[in-house]
Specification:
It is a single chain. The chain is an alpha/beta fold. Helices cover about 45% and strands about 15% of the residues. The protein has 12 helices and 10 strands. The protein has an 8-stranded parallel β-sheet with strand order 6-5-4-3-2-1-8-7. Strands 9-10 form a two-stranded antiparallel ribbon. Helix 2 packs parallel to helix 3 and helix 11 crosses helix 12. The model has no long low-confidence stretch (mean pLDDT about 95).
Length: about 300
């Protein structure tokens, strides 16, 4: 399965502010997303598209994505035709609500990749689920069979979801528990990478509330968080990274279990804790995540 890779943090920056793109690349995020959608006024779409294209080429060695406009917006096809490039990590597609959206953007990307001489399926896609219909269809969306293969990842957009339902976002996020849970479970059931959580927008200065919100998402099965300000990057990177203590313990678990298994014993106790296959697999995942993060630094 093709993957986009570990994304603890994805930092948005408006395409209309090229200076901020340069600064964002030094903020420590796992990927920077140049935004052609919500952050760009209708009258500036063409200009923003050209800026994004130039920045992708300028920073060819960095991990950059572009949030294009939605299917049916009147801008999506032009966005993709303009920004598809071998230097690009992938795109973020907003307002995904059905498998038809997946098929349509896949075909448009194939056309762009062909025109650029790129391998088909080279670019990954982060699909934003941000409506009641999208949440309802999320398993169907990520179970859609695509050929040639392409890397897909889900992200949750709470602002548009809340608008769609006519509700307000709260500091404790109780109203988001259901869509978060459904998205995370659907991604796992469909064999996709863990999703990326919605940005924390209640109070950009309240980093403690951000940490609490990120921990809540991590507990539900998200691998990272969208960020809308550079100050959010470091706290979220820390939340979605295993600690040194967790890594050390995971290695001890695997080592002890492998020794025990070689002696014909399938379960054991370590520091008073019961260790069996699920515990060992979780420890191995922690070790793999730590290695992935180390390679990005």
């Amino acid at each position: 399965m093709k993957t986009i890779g570990t994304l603890r943090t994805a930092l948005f920056v408006p395409a209309t502010r090229p200076d901020r793109v340069d600064k964002a690349l030094n903020a420590g995020a796992d990927v920077v997303i140049i935004d052609l959608e919500d952050a760009v006024a209708q009258a500036l779409k063409a200009e923003a598209r050209e800026t994004a294209r130039q920045k992708v080429k300028e920073h060819a060695q960095r991990k950059l994505m572009v949030r294009v406009n939605a299917i049916g917006s009147g801008h999506n096809r032009k966005d993709i035709e303009s920004i598809v490039d071998a230097s690009l990590t992938g795109i973020m597609l907003p307002k995904v609500e059905s498998p038809e959206h997946i098929r349509e953007v896949h075909q448009r990307l194939l056309d762009g990749e062909r025109n650029c001489g790129m391998p088909p399926g080279a670019l990954g896609v982060v699909a934003l689920i941000e409506s009641a219909r999208g949440v309802q269809n999320v398993f169907r969306i990520f179970s859609e069979a695509i050929a040639p293969e392409r890397a897909w990842m889900a992200a949750f957009g709470a602002a548009d979801y809340s608008l769609d339902l006519g509700i307000s976002m709260s500091r404790d996020g109780a109203e988001l528990h259901y869509p978060r849970s459904r998205i995370a479970v659907a991604c796992r059931a469909a064999g996709k990478e863990p999703p990326i959580d919605t940005p924390f927008m209640i109070d950009l200065k309240d980093l403690d509330a951000l940490r609490t919100d990120a921990l809540r998402a991590k507990q539900l099965g998200f691998q990272g968080k969208l960020c809308i300000h550079p100050s959010q990057v470091e706290p979220c990177n820390a939340i979605f990274s295993p600690t040194a203590e967790e890594i050390a313990y995971a290695r001890r678990v695997v080592e002890a279990f492998e020794k025990s298994e070689s002696e014909g014993i399938g379960a054991l106790q370590l520091d008073g804790k019961f260790i069996d296959y699920p515990v060992v697999e979780r420890s191995r995942r922690i070790i793999r995540l730590a290695a992935s993060i180390s390679q990005m630094q």
